[in-house]
Amino acid sequence: MARYLVSGGAGYVGSHVVLALLDRGDEVVVLDNLSTGHRAAVPAQVTLCEVDLANPRAVDEVLAGWKFDAVFHMAALSLVGESMKEPLRYIRTNVGNSINLAEAAIKANVKRFVFSSTAAIFGVPRSTPIPENAAAEPVNPYGESKLMVEQALAWAESAHGLRSACLRYFNAAGADPKGRAGEDHTPETHLIPRAILATLGRETPVTVFGTDYDTPDGTAVRDYVHVTDLAAAHLAVLPRLEEGSVAYNIGNGRGYSVKEVIASLERVSGRHVPHTLGERREGDPPALVAGSERLRGETGWVPRLDALDDIVKTAWAWHLANPDGYATRQRQAA
């Protein structure tokens, strides 16, 4: 049985990676300070180490306490707008904490490190879909911080033999089809859960930012990848790390507009989605779609839940079952 460490394993993507590992019979240890993650998102059979990555001594103790076959690193600050207001906090946290974890892995003789990067490293794309060899030109501190970690990991391989997989996420969406995990952020900024919460009367109407883009219906287009497919990609890259470091885009390879997302939720829920039309947000590109041919060709990964209605359906089901997010589960367990 293999054993893996998942930092940020109590968060949205991290909890789904934990489930993917458990489903194939692996042992998992979660490292999370629960600042944005949820204790209720960690399955009972998983060891939770409530540790802050900013504390290198505590991180070293976790890595020294078990023999890990690889580290999955997903713990980070991730709000683009917030990063514009607090750039130094984002760079200090995302870069410094990642270095602490990578150094602990090196000391513990862990050779494989899977890093949660972002499409934000590409900035405003020059072409769509964005190829995996596109130039990295981040336009916000969040994307910059992730790129800095990618660069640091390249040096870690050169100097210490730590092989890394840098996975550039596009828009993670949906929830575990079995209902075991879902999306619960405070505040919620992602379109699909925001629209669901508005439909359920738990949030104000969702705003459609911009209706005059050069897209088929005038609204911004994004590549939504189901979070379960995203988690599967993390496992798929592990064998590639036997040969050396890699970097991949993870997306469906096709985009859906804001209006298409709203229409999908109305089909799935049978309800009207409250929304208003607003001006464009500064810095929002018309379309962000992933080119992930290298990932598919080198690992055999393919998205299984790539239809928009399937993505939305799982998210809707999770929110119906957990109207207050993980707080619902905490009350049920009390």
UniProtKB/TrEMBL annotation:
Its EC number is 5.1.3.2. Keywords: Carbohydrate metabolism, Isomerase, NAD. Pathway: Carbohydrate metabolism; galactose metabolism. Its cofactor is NAD(+). Pfam families: Epimerase. GO terms for biological process: galactose catabolic process via UDP-galactose, Leloir pathway. Residues 5-251 form the NAD-dependent epimerase/dehydratase domain. One of its GO terms (molecular function) is UDP-glucose 4-epimerase activity. It catalyses: UDP-alpha-D-glucose = UDP-alpha-D-galactose. Signal peptide: none annotated. PANTHER family: UDP-ARABINOSE 4-EPIMERASE 1 (PTHR43725:SF53), UDP-GLUCOSE 4-EPIMERASE (PTHR43725). Homodimer. Belongs to the NAD(P)-dependent epimerase/dehydratase family. NCBIfam families: galE. This is UDP-glucose 4-epimerase. The gene is galE.
